[in-house]
Design goal:
alpha+beta; Glutaredoxin; 5-stranded mixed beta sheet; 3 helices; 5 strands; binds FE2/S2 (inorganic) cluster
Length: about 130
């Protein structure tokens, strides 16, 4: 059953959209990692982002679980925007490093990063 929300605008505001500085996508498999393992990482990321006050109405970060980032090996795979930093082997322990070093500290975790694709600055507006 679908969750009931007031409006998309209200939902976006409750998640800090407009104040976000980083967006973390985490793949929970099934091809890059066993889904049970991927879900363990996802549960950890959700819990820690809440504990660290990284996600919420004041931002500064957003998290999204996905079912495939098209890498399909070496998972769990994750990517952080706007840097376009792709990470492999995102176990709960490595997720903690990504949260502390990249999401909070703003520094890429070099030994977990396997690809980079910085997105160009936006030229449009809503
Ligand atoms: S299933 Fe995770 S990247 Fe494809």
């Amino acid at each position: 059953m679908a969750k009931t929300r007031t409006t998309p605008e209200a939902a976006a505001a409750s998640f800090g959209v407009g104040k976000l500085t980083r967006h973390l996508f985490v793949c929970t498999g099934p091809d890059c990692v066993d889904p049970e393992v991927g879900l363990e990482t996802w549960a950890y990321v959700k819990r820690r982002m809440k504990e660290l006050n990284l996600a919420g109405a004041d931002g500064p970060a957003y998290r999204t679980r996905c079912s495939c980032l098209r890498i399909c090996t070496g998972g769990p795979i994750a990517v952080v925007y706007p840097e376009g930093t792709w990470y492999r082997g995102v176990t709960p322990e490595n997720a903690e490093r990504i949260l502390q070093e990249h999401i909070i500290g703003g520094r890429v975790v070099p030994d977990l990063c396997f690809a980079r694709n910085v997105l160009p600055p936006s030229t449009g507006s809503l």
